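Table S2 (continued). Query chain:
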Amino acid sequence: MSNLLSWSITLTLILFVLAISLGLLRLLRGPTAQDRVLALDFIYVVGMLIMLTLAIRYDSSMYFEGAFLMVLFGFVSSVAMAKFLLRGEVIE
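Corresponding output:
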């Protein structure tokens, strides 16, 4: 791995940690439940990006599979939460 790629991956991971901390702040202080659900979706997406960045850094395909599972469960939980907030129940 080149020196430039190593530095850029490190900087990217630092910025992703900053983004997750801002998402956690919105999750904890969100005025409405919709804001909290949106912050949780944001955290899932940034977590997936962290997994993909680590896959590039360590040249491992296992991180890609982990990122796929993370996004899959994040999408299903987002749909369930949106349905709960809209109708008050998840299973009809």
